[in-house]
Structure formats: structure tokens, C-alpha cells
Amino acid sequence: MKSLAAILAASAGLTMASMASAQCVSVDPVVVPQVRIDPLDAAGPGEVVQPFVLSFRRAGAGSEPLAVRYQVVDEDSTIVSRVGLTQGPTVEWSSSDTSHDIGAFRSDAYTLLRTGSAVLGENDTVAQRQVAMRVTDLRADLAAGVYREQFTVRYWCGDIDQGLPFESTGIVSVSVAVPNVLSANIAGASTRGEIDFADFAQLSRRLVVSVRSTGPYRVAARSLNGGVMLREGGNSEQVSDRIGYRASFDGHLLDLAATSGQSADRAGLVGRMIPLEIEVDSIERNRAGSYFDTLFITLSPAN
């Protein structure tokens, strides 16, 4: 029991000493303006840079010159810094006072290699440094949503080789928004396609739709003729001039009169090749001729 008491006392003393030393500066909280990235925008920039200002404010009544070394720490990443947990956007941290990356990790063994510097001159109460957050993986397969995290600023006062660093936990608030967007086309990069039944030897034919999306989406269909193919030059009221049909998308039957559509899961950045299948009724009682209908398929993000 005496040994345990001695350890606790030593720990308490170390904590109080650290708190006293930490009063050399404080770091002002900062909210980095939200960054918006669109993984489907192939014509967009290769990276997004969002600058902000870190302010180191003198603590206590001293007025002597004071040097501060600092870095931005990602608490939950170990290899690359991300906004969010394992699936968030990758970020890098840079500062106007150094060419080095100033981002570090909680488990990093060489944190001193990635620091920036700020100096409070004699009688200065605050030192400010321009810092930039760089979002670098703009083409990554990121799901739609808002990624948020609060980063720690770790800093050293005076001689960086003396004493332990101090931290302002969660002082830098960051959010990155990925919109729910999609792109779709008929295989071959066209937005129009044709299904030709020829002589109706086969009553079921299909084409393939390529879909890429960052989030879930809705599929709606509308038939120009109300779900039937009409004979060219025929009478739309005559049964023998009409061929009914059914349309399915990804194996799900489409309601050709619905306006709200049906939901579909996120296709991702790589995308999916989805079959659009048309199955016609028996043509035994139909007149000879060419039959047509136009089917409009609308894919829209499900916000």
C-alpha cells in the first residue's frame, strides 16, 4: 500500500507541474470553413486547399520573447490523416513558416520532424500562423455525407528539447461535405438507347445502364404510350395494334405510371452495370408492322 501511495503522489505532482508550464500560451479555437468535394467531377481540381489561422495567445503576465513549436494531431489515425474515422477524406497539414508537413499522429515515433514555429516578440500577446488543410483524395470512393472531426494542436514552449509538449485537444474543428451525386448512361456513354425486338422471336430483351453514385438514388420510369408499344400507323384503341410489356431495372419491376420511383443502393465511384430488361406480351393476335414506345428512365439522388 505504501508503494501505491507513492506512485499516486508522484503522478499528482507531475500533473500539477505540467499544468503550470502549459500556461505559457493558449491556442484559440478555430472552425475551418467547410470543404465540399465531388468525387464524380473529373474536370475538377486535383486537391482542395482550405486556409485558416492558428492563434497562440500568451498566458500569464510575462513579456519576454517566447518561441512556440506546434503541430496538428489526428487522434484516431495511424498512417494517413483523415477527417472522420476509417473512411473519411485524406488531409494534409501545412504552414506558411515551414515546408514540412505539420500533421502528426498519437502513436507517431518521430513527431518532432513535423512541426511549425511561431514567435511572440517582447510584449507581444499573440502570434498568428497561416495554416492550410489540404484535401488530397478527391477521386476516392467516398460515400455521400458530412465528415467531421476535431483535431488537437500539440505545442512546445521555449526549448523543444526540454520538457513534455502540451496540447489543446479538439481545438481545430473540420468538416468535409461529399454531395449525393450520380452519373448514368447507356453502355457506350450515351443517354439514349434502343431495344430492338426484330421479329419478336424473343419476347425478352435488355440493355445495360452504367450507374455511378456517391449515395443512394431513386429510379422512376414513364412510358410515352402508357406501357404499350403501338403499331406504326395503327389505331391505339385496337387490341391488335397494341403490345403490352413490362420493364424491370436491376431485377425490380418498374411502375411505368409512378412519379416517386423506387429506391436503389449507392453504386459507388467504380459504378455498376445494371440491366434494363423489357418483356413483351404474346404477339399472336397482333397485326404485322413496326411497334414503338418511348420509355423514360429517371435516376436521381435520394436526398
Mean pLDDT: 87
Annotation, overall tally of beta strands: 21
Principal-axes geometry comes out as rod-shaped
Distance between the termini: 61 Å
Element order: H for helix, E for strand: HEEEEEEEEEEEEEEEEEEEEE
Strand proportion, as a percent range, falls in over 45%
The helical percent reads under 10%
Question: Which regions are unreliable across 5 or more consecutive residues at pLDDT < 50?
Answer: 1-22
Q: Characterize the main sheet.
A: 7 strands, mixed
Number of helix segments?
Answer: 1
* SS content category: mainly beta
Radius of gyration: 31 Å
Report on the structure:
By secondary structure, the protein is mainly β. A hairpin with a 2-residue loop joins β16 and β17.
Can you give keywords for this protein?
single chain, 303 residues, mainly beta, seven-stranded mixed β-sheet, seven-stranded antiparallel β-sheet, rod-shaped
